[in-house]
Design a protein that fits this description.
Helix 10 runs parallel beside helix 11 and helix 13 packs across helix 16. By secondary structure, this protein is an alpha/beta fold. The two termini are 24 Å apart. Helix content is 40%, strand content 15%. Strands 5-3-2-6-7-8-9 form a seven-stranded parallel β-sheet. It has a six-stranded parallel β-sheet with strand order 12-11-10-13-14-15, with helices on both faces. The chain is built from 17 helices and 15 strands.
């Protein structure tokens, strides 16, 4: 099992090669008859972390001249790659998701069969497709792996039925990939699959966060000279992200810091989303509209600049598997305030401040204390940077996943 991600010997074993030509980037492989041939399938990744993780993996795979990669991507992943000025060889853009189309599932199965690949990788499944070759499928949905039935049905009946529908397809794989040990154990127990067919490889952050976040300062650590402290809430429009609590947090905070213009919450919700409409309505009712701004969704490439506008990263989520937001905040030197849940403590450890996600006044107190205690902020930021060093970078994560794929190839069929 690939559960120790400090396998640096794997990284140095790779020969990387890329060829760029023209106004946009075009990538070709070295001719090598010993290559394995893999498919990376991200046809069902259309939102948030799934798109980001897919793009990170693709960009890293383009450096590897030891594998012949073929790609099946969603339009959303394609658009994000376009932002990097990257065009893929050997790629198929799937307009109709296999989650909703039997015709698409059949077509993808035939397509992969015609490619004659050694193995298929889906990072964030279910894939909904019986591919044929050995299939490694990642499951990053906490509702599938370890959420209780109570939590599931409190998320709404439509969402609960969607999750149940997805569970019908999670066994369409030969092995599974998880970001945490707790998700792996929960899935193996719930779906009665052997744990030795499950791999654990933690999440990683994008290279733009590693490079642009390097050396970012945070005035909370020295005593904020800014006229206001910005609290970034980089959550997508999902009920379990618990963003609707923000107006109550702002209201409680106003009683702790009565001076106007001290704190502003920066949200990243679609302007026409029900969550933003609810937040705006509650903000008006509590008279805290001046404390809450909606930036709207942001691209992976623009993420570091958005974090740079903030001092604090607030994630009031009630359920996660492994949120990349924690690593992004660590990389950009932003103070983390988040839910007092195992999934958060597993990643952040002693490098964050915690509160119960159903207690907005507790969150407000943590924000107020952080603003008034620069020494504590400085120490928490230092611990966060130390925690970040314990996780693999994108190259390391890619190497571990590639090794898992190689392990799945039947004897005598590898090294094409």
């Amino acid at each position: 099992m690939v559960e120790n991600w400090a396998l640096t010997d794997l990284y140095t074993a790779f020969y990387y090669m890329s060829d760029r030509s023209g106004k946009t980037h075009s990538w070709r492989r070295a001719a090598n008859q010993q290559m394995n041939k893999f498919v990376f399938n991200c046809s069902i990744n259309v939102l948030g972390g799934g798109v980001q993780e897919s793009v990170n993996f693709i960009l890293e795979s383009l450096k590897d001249g030891t594998v012949e990669w073929n790609y099946i991507v969603s339009p959303q992943v394609k658009r994000e790659l376009d932002r990097y000025d990257v065009h893929l060889d050997n790629s198929l853009v799937v307009e109709r998701s296999p989650a909703r189309s039997r015709a698409t599932r059949s077509y993808l199965a035939r397509h992969v069969k015609e490619l004659g690949v050694d193995a298929v990788l889906t990072l964030a499944g279910p894939a909904y497709v019986d591919f044929g070759p050995p299939h490694l499928m990642g499951i990053a949905n906490a509702f599938i792996t370890h959420a209780s039935l109570g939590v599931l049905f409190r998320s709404g009946w439509i969402h609960a039925l969607t999750v149940i529908y997805r569970t019908l397809f999670v066994r369409k794989s030969d092995a599974w990939l998880f970001q945490t040990a707790s998700a792996k154990k929960g899935f193996a127990r719930r779906f009665r699959v052997p744990e030795d067919s499950c791999y654990v490889v933690p999440n990683s952050i994008g290279r733009n966060y590693s490079t642009k976040g390097l050396g970012m300062e945070n005035t909370l650590a020295t005593g904020p000279e800014d006229t206001e402290v910005v609290v970034l809430v980089p959550a997508a429009d999902y009920p379990h992200k618990n963003v609707r609590i923000v107006p109550e947090i702002a209201h409680s905070l106003r009683s702790l810091i009565p001076a106007p213009g001290v704190v502003r919450f920066l949200l990243t919700l679609p302007e026409n989303s029900e969550t933003w409409k609810a937040v705006r309505s509650e903000s008006d009712r509590l008279n805290v509209s001046d404390m809450i701004e909606n930036h709207g969704p942001f691209s992976i490439n623009d993420g570091p600049e958005l974090y740079a506008r903030a001092h604090i990263m607030l994630l009031p989520t009630k359920l996660e598997t492994f949120s990349a937001n924690y690593l992004e905040a660590m990389a950009t030197n932003r103070l983390i305030i988040t839910s007092n849940k195992d999934f958060a403590r597993d990643v952040c450890g002693n490098g964050a401040l915690y509160f119960e996600p159903d207690r907005p006044s507790e969150c407000a107190r943590q924000i107020a204390d952080a603003i008034s205690n620069p020494a504590q902020c400085q120490e928490l930021l230092r611990r966060g940077r130390e925690r970040l060093d314990q996780f693999p970078d994108i190259a390391g994560r890619y190497a571990l996943i590639k090794k898992a794929l190689e392990d799945m190839i039947p004897p005598g069929k590898s090294a094409r």
